[in-house]
From TrEMBL:
The modification N6-(pyridoxal phosphate)lysine is found at K320. It holds the Pfam family Pyridoxal_deC. GO terms for biological process: amino acid metabolic process; carboxylic acid metabolic process; catecholamine metabolic process. InterPro entries: Aromatic_deC, PyrdxlP-dep_de-COase, PyrdxlP-dep_Trfase, PyrdxlP-dep_Trfase_major, PyrdxlP-dep_Trfase_small, Pyridoxal-P_BS. Keywords: Lyase, Pyridoxal phosphate. GO terms for cellular component: cytoplasm. PROSITE patterns: DDC_GAD_HDC_YDC. This is Aromatic-L-amino-acid decarboxylase.
């Protein structure tokens, strides 16, 4: 019953609350009244059935109760002893989840080897954690080959790869394309910003998520954004060529992020082509399946993860499409030793007598502290069961198909990419300006929330089935 998008201006809230914290304690009742007066007018309703932007963020009663229990227990489980249940439930849940999507056994905690799973706060963190582990592995490998090279020299030569900003690149007419260049080095920054601002403002224009480029920035490793094919997929030959030319320039290819379900168009990189190259060339392959990964609990979608056996790390977000409230990003690695070696900083106060028998998850992540996130995963898996979760995914994919059918039945519209999962990318036939105007009007009316994107040289609208409570009538309304 509330508009999906709020109608407030920046700074609206400052006028509704005092400038200082209260001296005296206030009453619950007064504060809850203020939730309606101060907060609700400024909420974008991600769980409205009319929210069709970005990708879903999960929400369910089991997820909420799990959050409450986690907050109530309020432990900080950075080592086994700081809350054994926190670590042990996470170990068990990552195995439950890994088995549900039929991840190769080497990734599981219950395997005999050094593989295992951990819950990160976000896919962005998982990509950065993968990069840091890749860096550790490359440094150790190269030091064996060149014992006289110091760590700093090796790190300065490392380079990473992911898929490109295809649409922006297309608009840079007259600017020579250089396959080795990252977006920053490919074009003068001012040109890039000008194009983004003038044409693609508030659009998704990339294949791999922005967090992948950010991981390169944070991890001090140049991230080459490589061109994709016409279906927005990163192909093996492109990667092979980039590796070859970087090696010729004396660089050390180190890390590849392949995406299963890109943010712009939900495209799937060709893992079966990229994987063998990464393994042969000794590059760490990280798979980012943030959104689409939840669908792999359904056997009919699992062919889309073929090639996962080549990966060194794999990540998806149950907090996107699997009904576990934010934050719950599932990450598995084949060899946790690289994480532990990259992240281990010990102090006497962190030691305990059972070290080495179960994971001390502080070595698998960036922060020291960590929440009891697995409890909400446990709740959701038990209260829905695999069948309930599969039903949720299938229902949302079905609703996207309903939207597709409505578009196909209307000659004014065209669908521009393959329909993938719960995403439909469409536009009005004719000049880009028409679709842009349609999008501007939709944003002004606030009846539904969709975002724009670019695909090749086309201005498009991304329609995603997001809310758990979206029904056919909401699709018809949209
Ligand atoms: N990777 C992909 C493919 C995404 O679509 C997104 C967000 O939509 C992310 C990564 C970032 O996820 P997070 O917010 O968990 O870092």
């Amino acid at each position: 019953s509330r508009p999906v998008l709020p109608s407030v201006e920046p700074g609206y809230l400052q006028n509704l609350i005092p400038g200082d914290a209260p001296e005296q304690p206030e009453k619950w009742q007064d504060i809850l009244v203020d939730i309606e007066r101060v907060i609700m007018p400024g909420v974008t309703h991600w769980h409205s059935p009319h929210f069709h932007a970005y990708y879903p963020t999960a929400n369910s009663y089991p997820g909420i109760v799990g959050e409450m229990l986690s907050a109530g227990i309020g432990c900080i489980g950075f080592s086994w002893i700081t809350s054994p249940a926190c670590t042990e439930l996470e170990v068990a849940m990552m195995d439950w989840l890994g088995k549900l999507i039929q991840l190769p056994r080497e990734f599981l905690n219950c395997s005999d080897g050094p593989g295992g799973g951990v819950i990160q706060g976000s896919a962005s963190e998982a990509t950065l954690v993968g990069l840091l582990a890749a860096k550790e592995r490359s440094v150790r490998r190269i030091q064996k080959l060149h014992p006289d090279w110091d760590e700093g020299t090796i790190k300065a030569k490392l380079v990473a790869y992911s898929s490109d900003l295809y649409a922006v690149q297309k608009h840079m007419t007259g600017v020579p394309y250089c396959p080795q260049g990252s977006i920053i080095s490919r074009f003068p920054l001012a040109d890039v910003l000008h194009n983004i601002v003038t044409f693609t403002s508030s659009c998704f224009a990339d294949q791999s998520n922005s967090s992948v480029e950010k991981a390169g920035l944070l991890g001090s490793m140049p991230m080459r954004l490589l061109p994709t094919d016409e279906k927005c997929r990163l192909r093996g030959a492109t990667l092979e060529q980039a590796i070859k030319s970087d090696r010729e320039r004396g660089l050390i290819p180190c890390y590849v992020v392949a995406t299963l379900g890109t943010t712009g168009t939900c495209a799937f990189d060709c893992l079966e082509e990229l994987g063998p190259i990464c393994n042969k060339e000794e590059l760490w392959l990280h798979v980012d399946a943030a959104y689409a990964g939840s669908a792999f609990i359904c056997p009919e979608f699992r062919h889309l993860m073929a090639g996962v056996n080549y990966a060194d790390s794999y990540n998806f977000n149950p907090h996107k499409w699997m009904l576990v409230n934010f934050d719950c990003s599932a990450m598995w690695v084949k060899d946790s030793q690289y994480l532990i070696e990259a992240f281990s900083v010990d102090r006497i106060y962190l030691k305990h007598q059972h070290q080495g028998r179960t994971p001390d998850y502080r070595h698998w992540q960036i922060p020291l502290g960590r929440r009891f996130r697995s409890i909400k995963l446990w709740m959701v898996l038990r209260l829905y069961g695999a069948e309930g979760l599969q039903q949720h995914i299938r229902r949302q994919v079905g609703l996207a198909r309903e939207f597709e059918a409505l578009l196909r039945g209307d000659s004014r519209f065209e669908i521009v990419t393959d329909i993938s999962m719960g995403l439909v990318c469409f536009r009005l036939k004719g000049p880009n300006q028409l679709t842009k105007r349609l999008h501007d009007r939709l944003m002004a009316r606030k009846n539904i929330y969709v975002i724009a994107a670019t695909f090749q040289d086309k201005y498009i609208i991304r329609f995603v089935v997001c809310s758990r409570v979206t029904e056919s009538r909401d699709i018809a309304f949209a």
